[in-house]
Amino acid sequence: MTAYRRAVKAIVPTASCFGGGRSGWRFFSLVSMAESPENPTPLLVPKKKKKKSKKIKIDPLTPPPPPSEFPEWAYEPRDFFKFEIVYQSKKSRARVGRIHTPHGIVETPGFVSVATNGALKAVDHRAGDATDCQLMFCNSYHLLIQPGPAVIEKAGGLHKFINRDRPLITDSGGFQVFSLSGADAADEMNMKSLAKRHHSKSMLKVTEEGASFQSYKDGKKILLTPELSVQSQKAYGADIIVPLDELLPANVDDRRLLHSVYLTHRWEARSLQEHLKDIRQQAMFCVIHGGMNFDLRKLSVEYLTSLPFDGCAVGGSLGKDRKELIELLHFTMPLIPREKPVHLLGIADLESLEGAVPTGVDTFDSCYPTRMARHGHLLTRQGRLKMPKRKYDMDYGPIDDECTCFTCQNHTRAYINHLLKAKEPVAGTLCTIHNLQFMNDRMKKFRQDILDGHI
């Protein structure tokens, strides 16, 4: 029995299937699963009554389009994007590689700094580049709200708008739409677990068409469809773009999770179809879903890797703690074709990196080091320092004796401690520069340890 059949049989007893597509992947259609939605209450107008509008009914388990519906040329290698494996570990699935993009090379395993609004928090990106930041992550949701795709496109794209000539990646905007729909934004420091949160009915509505939400800026209603997400990312012009997906809380039941995986697959297929209309030297990574249900993870990998995506991202709910995350990666990573670069969405804390790098993940994004810096948490080779504290008042050494960053070369712990106590804005800048340097140095050490046979 296939992994998908096992996942489905646990929910409903009967299913029908039909084959199709590349790699022998099969689509399954479950009957009698979708409840018919109620028609909306008609509006009353003088002398006439409007007929009830009919909502489009769709089985939540309607299969996504098979690989055969995508053009043959889309499966050919891109001349502007390539993933090169430099060395494969003999001890684990870890590898050293290079992602070749139109704006430069990304060495892997690599840390991806987060520039939410096209800017690193508290630091000009040139200062970030000086710490060896290569790939930088910008958030489509925030850029859609402000300044808007039209402004960025007229400037010549995101690279010219922010004046950066290194690789960029943009997401679909889906994570922010779903995580910000509740009372608080999701916190990747807590492993992106949304178990205690729920979708706010007043803020978010999900249909087959897309996700409707209200702008946090002016309350304007926005419908984010797979096509709009891709069109926005085309305007931004990032080297790597991501299709729209649905992010569920971690505590949903298997039936709801199964429906979400199907919806995500249909959305991702629509995103890819929109992307292929006008590639513009951009690579698109699929987003693998399924929560902690391994059968659904396998289903998601099998379908999405049968389509002409250029790489893969592991997303969705990634477990309630670090142990579950690593278990999920140990299961999922061997299923992904070796030649595809793999990105782990939203996770790059040091402890998770230790467990994730040996599974073969290539890139990791997180605002963890920059957020920590702004709160006086400094990463060092001797462990984490928490400032301000009295014990650092007269400590005239650098934050880290081995660090080559601007902060460590020019300022002492005592001075940084003083700035944090005085709440000087420059404190966040200097601490952020240091933490970025530490993260990039740590990834460089991971690469060397793999080459030396230690990982």
Q: Would you kindly provide a written description of the structure presented here, covering whatever features stand out?
A:
With 455 residues, this protein is α/β, with parallel strands linked by helices. Helix content is 32%, strand content 17%. It has 15 helices and 20 strands. The strands form six sheets. Strands 10-9-8-18-17-16-15-14 form an eight-stranded parallel β-sheet. A three-stranded antiparallel β-sheet has the order 5-6-7. A three-stranded antiparallel β-sheet has the order 11-12-13. Strand 16, helix 10 (322-332) and strand 17 form a beta-alpha-beta unit. Helix 1 packs across helix 9 (294-304) and helix 8 (254-276) packs parallel to helix 9 (294-304). It is globular. Residues 1-7, 11-47 and 182-202 have low confidence and may be disordered.
Give a quick precis of the structure.
With 455 residues, the chain is α/β, with parallel strands linked by helices. Helices cover 32% and strands 17% of the residues.
Question: Could you list some keywords that capture this structure?
Answer:
eight-stranded parallel β-sheet; 455 residues; alpha/beta; 17% strand
Portion of residues in helices?
25-40%
Read across the widest sheet, the strand sequence of neighbours is 10-9-8-18-17-16-15-14
What is the alpha-carbon Rg in Å? 23 Å
Provide mean pLDDT, rounded.
Answer: 87
